[in-house]
Design brief:
Elements (H helix, E strand, L loop, with lengths): L7 H20 L2 E7 L11 E4 L5 E5 L4 E4 L2 E9 L2 E10 L4 E6 L3 E8 L9 E6 L6 E6 L3 E4 L2 E7 L6 E8 L4 E7 L4 E9 L2 E2 L4 E7 L5 E5 L5 E5 L2 E9 L7 E9 L4 E7 L2
Parallel strand pairs: 1-7, 8-14, 15-22
Antiparallel strand pairs: 1-4, 2-3, 2-5, 5-6, 8-11, 9-10, 9-12, 12-13, 15-16, 15-19, 17-18, 17-20, 20-21
Length: about 270
């Protein structure tokens, strides 16, 4: 069978009709945009349900997003943790966008990033602040959730033993962002010398928190004095057991960043 070739004018007419039909179809719907605290609430995982006049659900929309709906009156019902938000009489008109603003909620987000800056998605548990610390919600780090204003305890299952925040205030209209970054221990080598010659076999080194007498670590005489320490500021107290030179020296102001490798030379002359 030979293919039918339509005249160019017919093809153009069909294209025009298609465009008109598409425009007419678009004009038969309107849009509902849900704005919850602007960018602070955008992307929150709580979906709002749109209920039509017949009582049936016509669609869902999340904060910061829009949904197309046939013209008519709707009820917006958005469950939040600890309550729900209800908006009656939401009117949708053909070809227009109706923005629903919600401000009387709180946003909670836990950001737990590893040393590469990626959030692995640790488990987050939210409980009441009072005994017996009843569970309020659980979700994954990095996600945003909407809460009724309250005060809560938050636990994240980040290694090695998790991390806790107590009495986090979830205030209306506010975004509570709790951040946790993976701590990578720093490598500190304290090199003791006499006349510029290594003297570690005759010295004992004690690491103290900067400006205090709180001992963090110690190293007896040996081939080297090497420490794995959390980021922070420290002092190194060196005890010389050789009977030569200074009997003790304090090297103060050792700053260690996460994952850093630092060597401090301490002369005993």
């Amino acid at each position: 069978m030979r293919p039918i070739r339509l005249p160019a004018t017919t093809i153009a007419l069909l294209a025009a009709v298609s465009i008109v039909v598409a425009i007419a179809g678009a004009a038969q719907t309107g849009n509902l945009k849900l704005d919850v605290l602007g960018e602070e609430g955008a992307g929150a995982k709580n979906p709002a349900h749109l209920i039509a006049a017949n009582g049936k659900e016509a669609g869902q929309v999340t904060p910061g997003s829009s949904v197309a709906l046939p013209p008519g009156e709707y009820k917006l019902v958005m469950p939040i943790i600890g309550g729900q938000i209800v908006k009656d009489g939401v009117q949708i008109e053909a070809g227009r966008t109706h923005t629903v603003l919600i401000n009387n909620v709180a946003v909670l987000q836990v950001s737990a990033k590893d040393k590469t800056g990626v959030d692995p998605g640790f488990g987050v548990t939210v409980t009441t602040t009072d005994l017996p610390h009843a569970k309020v919600a659980s979700f994954i780090s990095g996600d945003k959730y909407l809460f009724a204003p309250s005060e809560v305890d938050v636990h994240v299952d980040a290694p090695p033993q998790g991390y806790d925040w107590h009495a986090v205030a979830l205030a209306p209209g506010r975004h509570a962002l709790l951040t946790l970054s993976e701590v990578v221990k720093a490598d500190l080598v304290v090199q003791t010398v006499m006349s510029k010659i290594p003297f570690d076999n005759s010295t004992r080194v004690v690491i103290l928190r900067a400006g205090t007498q709180t001992k963090v670590a110690e190293s007896d005489p040996g081939s080297e004095h090497r420490f794995k320490l959390d980021p922070g500021d420290y002092d190194a107290y060196v005890e010389n057991r050789s009977g030569k030179g200074k009997p003790y020296v304090t090297s103060a102001g050792i700053h260690l960043d996460s994952g850093a490798k630092v060597e401090r030379t301490v002369p005993l002359d």
